[in-house]
Amino acid sequence: MTLSPRDRRALALGALGLALIVLARVAALPVLDRWRQARTEAACCQAALTARAQSVSGVLAQRGRLAGRYGRAINRPLEPVDQAEVTLLRAAKDVLGAAGFAPGEYLPQRPRQVREIPGVDYVCLEVRGQCQESKLPECLAAVGRAETLLFIDRITVVVDSKRPDQLNVTMLLATLGRRQEDTP
């Protein structure tokens, strides 16, 4: 049986069509699927990167606000609780003494856990002493300008009955310390 040129052309085009279908199925479609998958992953990574950038910018903005309120001490890493106690005592003596506060006694308090931040404790120190009425605002401002992060948790001021220009001051100073996990 001889094929006419028209039949040969039809068979050749049919074979070419089948070859293109097989080529598309074997080569082109898997490449297209991988390209779509890579594009989807890139979009997910871009979304994650954008979320991370927003988070970092939020942290930097918060750090800027805290630095304005608490000074340069906000940029330091947290010390372990035992070192934070020593640093708090030293800072309290330096800052309050320089501001005109005459300390009577320093009473370290037991560290308390910060509920909002896991692994961080409040390290507290009760300071009792005297200062002149005109020096109290200076003492409070000096706490805010300290090199160490200091909070005034509580303050009690009573006028001295013997000397009306003197104030008996009790303040609870605090800082933050990193809790050391128990190692077995």
Characteristics of this structure?
5 strands; 5-stranded antiparallel sheet; 184 residues; rod-shaped; Alpha-Beta Plaits; alpha+beta; 2 domains
Structure report:
This protein is α+β, with helices and mostly antiparallel strands. The protein has helices at 5-70, 81-98, 136-144; strands at 102-108, 112-113, 120-132, 151-159, 166-178. Strands 1, 2, 3, 4 and 5 form a five-stranded antiparallel sheet that branches. The longest helix has 66 residues, at 5-70. It starts with a helix and ends in a 6-residue tail after the last strand. The protein folds into two domains: 1-75; 77-178, Alpha-Beta Plaits. A hairpin with a 6-residue loop joins strand 4 (151-159) and strand 5 (166-178).
Q: What's the tally of helices?
A: 3
- The name CATH uses for the topology of the largest domain is Alpha-Beta Plaits
Q: Strand tally, please? A: 5
| N- to C-terminal distance | 91 Å
What is the architecture of the largest domain at the second tier of CATH?
Answer: 2-Layer Sandwich
Which range does the strand content fall in? 15-25%
The number of distinct structural domains comes to 2
Poorly predicted sequence stretches spanning 5 or more consecutive residues: none
The residue fraction in helices comes out at 40-55%
Structural class: alpha+beta
Q: Would you identify the CATH H-level superfamily of the largest domain?
A: Ribosomal protein S6/Translation elongation factor EF1B
* Mean pLDDT over the full residue set: 87
Radius of gyration: 36 Å
